[in-house]
């Protein structure tokens, strides 16, 4: 028994986490995301079943997600880089402001109420869901990305929001790049590189943010669950290359619709959690 949960149920949760890890890896390569959009809501529900305190449940899911997507993001970025699809000039321009945004998000995480994390997730995932379900590839706000300070401001925004919702930045950067006339394959590949810049400082920041907090499970280091790492990471590593190959070989419309519906359901779940 753990927190009143039978061993058989724990085994089922472990299987669910392994399956989630497999899906995370595929999504990391396919959409240029670290998989946090999948892992965060799953961990949120799992930690709830295990009886984790509501005050730390959401930041624990976010911090653990950031730690989980470290190896996934590295593998995904390497795969896209070897295919020559990454825009390194954009990645270099975003590197410092992205990390600064992540640091700011980690500091906020130490003091923010749970609803703050949920609200950021709802806003970002909701916009992405709408774009996936109803968006047109011809939608544009400009014919190219801005230069200088404006481009770096995008990087800071990506880092801040990603750190607060536990993602590798792909959802946000994909939208920004495609709306600025960049091809989806380049956007996906470049977004994969952001996952590395976000996940490493993000995980370390959440360890700091949760250090000494009450209500955390015994396996947690700050807001990072070691059990979550052990169960999810292996399958993400095994399946990330599958997603990379799919991104360069398959039409993605049906998968985009499925992912958009999933995000909409998650948003509705977090709205319910905030209201209740």
TrEMBL record:
Residues that span the membrane, as ranges: 12-44, 56-77, 89-109, 115-134, 154-176, 188-209, 221-243, 255-275
Where it sits in the cell: the answer is: Cell membrane; Membrane
Keyword Ligase on this protein?
Answer: no
Membrane topology designation: Multi-pass membrane protein
Answer yes or no on keyword Plastid: no
GO CC, one annotated term? plasma membrane
Signal peptide stretch: none
Which superkingdom, per the lineage?
Bacteria
Sorted UniProt keywords: Cell membrane, Membrane, Transmembrane, Transmembrane helix
**Which family does the similarity line name?**
Belongs to the 4-toluene sulfonate uptake permease (TSUP) (TC 2.A.102) family.
Name it. Answer: Probable membrane transporter protein
Recorded source organism is: Saliniramus fredricksonii
